[in-house]
Amino acid sequence: MLKKLCLIGLIVTTAACAKMDHLGKAPSFTPTTQSPERVAMIASGLPDVEPPKRTSDRASLWSGNQTSLLGDRRAVNRGDIMTVVIEIDEKAEISNSTARSRGGKETLGIPDFFGIPERINRGQPEGASLDSAVDISSSSSSTGDGSVKRKEKLTLRIAATVTDVLPNGVLAIEGLQEVRVNFEIRELIVSGYVRPEDISRQNEITYDKIASARISYGGRGQITDVQQPRIGQQVVDMVLPF
Known about the structure:
Mean pLDDT: 76
Helix content: 10-25%
Strand order of the largest sheet: 5-1-2-3-4-6
Number of domains: 2
Largest sheet: 6 strands, mixed
Number of strands: 6
Distance between the termini: 21 Å
Number of helices: 6
Low-confidence stretches: none
Structural class: alpha+beta
């Protein structure tokens, strides 16, 4: 019992500390000093070993370098930045209906069997008889009806950083965007794995080409706190079996 009380106290304390951040002030932004994007930009990996270039090659317009006029500007290395386009417009509607019924009736009577039922009926109480010895009837029915309707629409753009280049050439990306309006922070988080060939010439990629995509759009602040149930209510809902 003591362990449970300590656990509840720890949960309450943690939730209270999280809300203390925006007590009487706007919520703070997430520090970017140790973010995966910043770490990837600082430690971008070992550069590719290329043969030394001539002085004339550095001034050529046909250089394949990313900084050249005709170079490929798409993100390919750790620390590079690309744009993720999120345009979700989904609609699903499912309707199910089932009906089932069953009925049964069984009747067993022994009105005449070598005179034995007559003899037995004489010894039965008044009104009792073997003429209808067993009479069984049953009936069952069930119906079900269910429907699901869902519609989602989300249009966002976010800059993501290449945090790692896997041995097969697939890029691991991660992006975090925070916008503070008055006392509320709206945050957008995206992560996943993309193929370099799926990145467009505009250095953009759509969300449906991201493997293991994790997209989160939410917020924190005073308005979000009011919309969420109190921590005590959440604990009670978790403990109560009904």
